[in-house]
Specification:
The complex is a heterodimer of chains A (about 350) and B (about 300). Chain A is about 30% helix and about 20% strand. By secondary structure, chain A is α/β, with parallel strands linked by helices. A seven-stranded mixed beta sheet of chain A has the order 1-9-8-7-6-2-3, with helices on both faces. A four-stranded antiparallel beta sheet of chain A has the order 5-4-11-10, with no helix packed on it. In chain B, helix 6 links the parallel strand 8 and strand 9. In chain B, helix 7 runs parallel beside helix 8. The chains are: A alpha/beta (about 350), B alpha/beta (about 300). The interface between A and B is large, with 62 and 55 residues.
Chain lengths: ~350, ~300
């Protein structure tokens, strides 16, 4: 593991070099908020940004993605046969990704990379990506990463951790990919391990202390699924929900998708697009029957999936990294932290109010 | 080796043909179409693989399903109605309900489309060897049950199972699937058929009349440790059959059910078909009632 000091005056030059070897992405301000965009040669990511409105999941898992193409023209030999589409999987690097968003990919991977099946689109894009994280010195008030299996300096899922140290960045190379990235930029001023590690540890402690909202998840695994499903608080939790789906679109760990064929004339593409458990169509049977036909079912599905089913299925932590986007952007102020507490406390004799 | 090359070696494992894309259907040709029901809403499609080697890759067991891929329209998850003992084709019976199934119903012999699969688990054949089997089916949920019956009656397999009872009902005689085969099975002495319809005005109807739960109560053997019940049918049938099986003493680990839910991917990734932590497409569609009792049963 290497520590590299990147003088800020060498930042732009390094990025310029990198743009020859990588497709670079980073936070860019558009109107009132930031999102991850392509950084072309000569451009700089805006690392002042606290966090982007949308998570960078789209860089590995686009909101709409072509899977296959086909022809419906029967005069062609290959008509009606699905053909793979060439994808650009040359190296890309995401600069300024927050540790929570990088950790989210680790959680999502459990869904797309299983012993039985591997999703080639997600995996190829993920493997082609170098994650250059930016540690958070000033977490938002809605952040609760430290109790969601993550943290403002969390390293899991990152190839490089950048720590802003005023006139320079201290870069911790966490993987071979990360070392390759730093050397491709020409950033090679190695600093003493002990001192750098100590400096980062101190900053990490300060940042973690700033996160004051905490969730408890210790009882989620032991509570019976059916009991929790039948808990009376779901009606209250769902009461104000308008099923807009914002929470699922901004969430870095939501991965549900739909597959559709789109035709234009005699040719077309099979595409996949993000879908949401908030929408009735998501589970509607051809017969008209819908197993999740009320919004209570759908709201419950979202929270149960993230905080109970995922925990049980993979014998792991929750499917949430505490980025707080759904808390900030929900139009009716549904707060996953309160729901998590209600679930975690269920049957423990402590009632939590939904309101 | 430069860094750039190192990275590319790493990616090349995904580029190679050795990694199967689970979303890519095998191309097939429609080889036969049979209208199954008098309302013409149920048709059976026989498919042959355009690339003969794909048939071996599609090795399946009774109880599994596949995604039928109608190019330009989309995919539908359908239980496999043919049996692994039948070679040279695969067969599916499709109810006409939505966009894809309606389009498929209008397709002709010779048309090209695709099949992905097989997906999901199957009826627990290994566990059921040496046991009595009671098949309880209703309506058009008889497809994977047909596969199962053909499989068990195959000369190479029949001795592996003890008594086979089949209770199969539909609304009316003209709504029963696979009528020619039902007649043939009725005449055999190594399978006990109990065919029923909800009602009929046909004076020549020589089988049972009554709902599946009622006929089950009259005809199904009393439970013992060596008897498994496989139940597939519409929700209302399942709802009223379960108390009957309880009464006959079937334990919930010996009641096998096959579920349906809306699906897209078929491989446990797209997120819509779950009942609790189980994906119906990948962890199912076959579950014991004992397993289902531990889920929210959102199906």
């Amino acid at each position: 593991m290497k520590f590299i000091k990147i003088e800020k005056e060498k930042w732009a030059v390094g990025l310029e070099k990198l743009s020859d070897a990588y497709r670079l992405f980073g936070p860019v301000k558009e109107s009132d908020f930031h999102n991850f965009k392509r950084i072309e040669k000569g451009e700089l990511p805006d690392l002042i940004c606290l966090n982007t409105r949308l998570s960078p999941k789209t860089l590995v898992y686009p909101q709409a993605e072509a899977m296959f193409e086909y022809s419906l023209d029967e005069s062609r030999e290959d008509h009606h046969i699905m053909k793979e589409i060439e994808k650009d999987i040359t190296p890309q690097a995401v600069i300024g990704i927050r540790p929570c968003d990088a950790k989210a990919f680790i959680l999502v991977r459990k869904n797309f990379d299983t012993p039985e099946y591997q999703d080639p689109y997600w995996l190829r894009a993920y493997e082609s990506t170098t994650f250059v994280g930016l540690a958070c010195h000033f977490p938002c008030t809605s952040c609760f990463c430290t109790t969601a299996g993550c943290g403002p300096f969390h390293e899991e899922g990152l190839d490089v951790l950048l720590v802003d140290a005023e006139d320079h960045y201290l870069a911790k190379a966490l993987t071979d990919k990360g070392e390759g990235f730093l050397s491709a930029a020409g950033w090679d001023a190695e600093v003493k391990k002990d001192r750098a590690a100590k400096q980062i540890e101190a900053e990490k402690q300060k940042a973690e202390d700033k996160i004051t909202t905490l969730i408890n998840t210790d009882r989620l695994k032991q509570i019976d699924t059916v009991d929790l499903y039948k808990a009376p608080f779901w009606e209250d939790v769902a009461f104000s929900c308008i099923n807009c789906g914002t929470c699922t679109y901004v969430c870095p760990t939501c991965w549900c998708f739909d597959i559709q064929d789109e035709n234009r004339g005699a040719s077309g593409m099979r595409i996949r697009i993000w879908d949401s458990c908030m929408f009735p169509l998501f589970t509607l049977h051809g017969s008209g029957h819908n197993p999740r036909n009320t919004k209570v079912h759908r709201v419950r599905q979202r929270f149960m999936h993230k905080l109970k089913y995922y925990v049980d299925k993979y014998d792991s932590g929750i499917q949430c990294v505490g980025c707080g986007r759904c808390v900030r952007l929900c139009p009716v102020n549904i707060d996953i932290r309160r729901v998590c507490d209600m679930m975690n406390n269920y049957g423990a004799g402590q009632d939590t109010c939904a309101a | 080796m430069t860094f750039y090359e190192t990275v590319n070696v790493e990616y090349s494992i995904f580029k190679g043909a050795s990694v199967q894309n689970p979303y890519l259907p095998y191309p097939v040709r429609i080889d036969g179409i049979v209208v199954e029901s008098e309302d013409k809403n149920l048709k059976t499609f026989k498919f042959v693989f355009l690339n003969p080697e794909d048939e071996a890759k599609f090795a399946y067991k009774s109880g599994q399903f596949a995604e039928l891929s109608v190019t330009g329209k989309g995919e539908i998850p359908i239980g496999i109605a043919s049996s692994p003992t039948e070679k040279g084709f695969v067969m599916f019976t499709v109810n006409k309900v939505g966009l894809v199934s309606s389009y498929l119903h209008a397709m002709k012999v010779g048309d090209i489309m695709g099949i992905r699969g097989p997906f999901g688990n199957w009826f627990p054949w290994e566990q059921m060897e040496g046991k009595n089997i009671v098949i309880i089916g209703g309506g058009f949920a008889f497809t994977t049950l047909r596969s199962s019956i053909i499989y068990m009656l195959d000369p190479a397999n029949r001795s592996k199972f003890k008594d086979i009872n089949v209770i199969y009902g539909a609304r009316a005689p003209g709504m029963l699937l696979y009528r020619d085969e039902l007649v043939k099975w009725e005449k055999r002495d190594d399978i006990n058929m109990h065919i029923t319809v909800d009602g009929t005005d046909d004076p020549n109807w020589k089988y049972n009349t009554g709902f599946v739960p009622t006929i089950t109560e009259q005809k199904a053997p009393v439970a013992d440790d060596n008897t498994y019940a496989i139940v597939c049918g519409p929700p209302i049938m399942i709802k009223f059959t379960q108390p009957v099986l309880d009464k006959l003493g079937y334990s919930h680990d010996k009641i096998i059910m096959s579920l349906e839910n809306r699906m897209k991917c078929g491989i446990g990734m797209c997120g819509r078909c779950n009942i609790g932590k189980e994906f119906v497409c990948k962890d199912g569609p076959v579950f014991t009632l004992e397993q289902l009792n531990k889920t929210p049963r959102e199906y």
